[in-house]
Write a structure and sequence with these properties.
alpha+beta; Glutaredoxin
Length: 86
């Protein structure tokens, strides 16, 4: 199972990262049917520090911060999912 966390206070950019993550998972699952992926929103600023996030929004895949302070395109997230799946 792959775990995705969207870190942010709930702003528009955070919402866009979540939308892109959902789109990426849908695309990725076409190539990886049956693969389980969870997406969780984390709005607790104390938890941001656990991942070393300095600016929101942030995206964590399998407990690794992959991006912060920007909105990655779905294709970038798909690449990170491939990396996480090994």
């Amino acid at each position: 199972m792959i775990s995705i966390k969207v870190l942010g206070p709930g702003c528009k950019n955070c919402e866009r990262v979540e939308i892109h993550a959902v789109q990426a998972v849908e695309q990725w699952q076409v190539e990886n049917p049956g693969a389980e992926v969870t997406i969780e929103k984390v709005t607790d600023t104390e938890k941001f520090l656990d991942y070393g996030l300095l600016s929101t929004p942030g995206l964590v895949i399998n407990e690794k911060l992959v991006t912060s302070g920007r909105i990655p395109a779905p294709f970038q997230i798909v690449a990170w999912l491939n990396e996480a799946a090994g």
